[in-house]
Amino acid sequence: MSDVTAIELHSILDRQRATFLNAGPPALKQRRTDLRRLKAEILKRRTDILRALKTDFGQRSERESAIVELIPLVQSINYMIAHLGHWMKPQRRHVSAYFQCGRAWVVRQPVGVVGMIAPWNYPVSLALVPLATAVAAGNRAMLKPSEFTPATSAVIGEIVRAIFPPEQVAVVTGGGEVGAAFSALPFDHILFTGSTAVGKKVAEAAARNLTPVTLELGGKSPVVIAPGFAMRRVADRVAFGKLTNAGQTCIAPDYVLVHEDDRDAFAAVYQDAVKKLHPGGYAGSPDYTAILNTHHYERLSSLIDNAAAQGAQVIRLGTDSAPDHVLAPVLLLDVTPQMAVMQEEIFGPVLPVLTYRTLDEAIAFINARPRPLALYYFGDNRAERDRVLKNTVSGNVTINGTLMHYVQDDLPFGGVGDSGIGAYHGKEGFIALTHARGVYRQGRFNAATLLQPPFGKLADAIINLILR
Ligand code: NAD
């Protein structure tokens, strides 16, 4: 990007910071009003948003977009409006006996200006939930949506400009170069959602300014199916999780680990479940989403070809439409960890199935790889479930289902290790974007005042009393 744009970025930040410092933290009433206006503007532009998403993806079901983008977004705004008053209340803290008559409390103060970078896969909710969180926390914000969803980014820009002055919230557009300049700005916090590779660059740039980061990244989220579990209870939910947005979901089940005796049963019911979701087929189905662009369509095709070349059984569960980059679901059996499909986040409707002989083997497989963003466990035996959950580390977990932890407003959402740093959503979002300022008000008298020079016998007595 040109120097001029970098200067523009700096000047937006400078103005936001100056007005933040000048105006002070907004009161609860103002924050609630801002959130209500944001929600109203989103609902007013609902049709524009859904059309823009369709334009950017080529094919994306308006109903699915409403379900997976707008409902979680609006619900999370409602949740923040309902709970913000409670979160903002100063919290009384304990004061030890020697400091009695004093008072201690914690105030969650807005950090100032938050920089937010969003990806293309859920370009509305992954831009506007962080924004709503920043507003709830009383901050100003600069948002950079993805360059790969220009129509949606334009609508997001219109929504923001309709309700916020640029010194409160600004949307800036651009690609990786703008992203790099953006993350080098001395923000008070950066919330980045995107790939692990770019997340590392953002963390590096932020470290130069000691800017704290929340990194919402990706990875390979496994599904572990307990031995002998009823496969019909698994297949629908795995298919739903894998095929929502055609698998272009950060928490999509990436691969399945199933007991070797159950593999064929799983493969059979999964194929039925996939057919049931789109009975008319996949190419041309208005309910199925296209792969974003040719680059990702070809990337996924080459993952399938690589698996086939290395001996995987490739079961295609529908017809593709290459010109529209619609990729029908694919089930891969006889997969080995060496195949390319097991080396990177799939981010598409391709499901590799791997087998294990003991649950410990499945646990070891997960632990030998980067920590996943989500873990899915299917099983009724509590001891087995506890063994898997206690002995693995991941972002969130859904038991006997997929994706649904994401829409629990009272759960933190975030990864760990390669899948992210920190969390947001609900209260954890408010905590992430505020500073916990501890305040102590000293009482007129307390024992500590007796521990000042000139020291004498009284000081000795108190020291000995404390150091018992
Ligand atoms: P990406 O990392 O390629 O891009 C994300 C954003 O970063 C875009 O706005 C892009 O312009 C910007 N960017 C690119 N280069 C940059 C740089 N050098 N410095 C700063 N910003 C830069 O990711 P993507 O392809 O848009 O999204 C897919 C990835 O995001 C997947 O890995 C997916 O798992 C992950 N993801 C994570 C979550 C989550 O909540 N954890 C949600 C959705 C997607």
Automatic annotation (TrEMBL):
Keywords in alphabetical order: NAD, Oxidoreductase
Domain Aldehyde dehydrogenase per the UniProt entry, residue ranges: 26-436
Catalytic center residues: E216, C250
Cellular component terms per the entry's GO annotation: cytoplasm
Organism of derivation: Komagataeibacter swingsii
Entry keyword annotation includes Oxidoreductase: yes
Family: Belongs to the aldehyde dehydrogenase family.
Name listed for the protein in its UniProt record: Aldehyde dehydrogenase
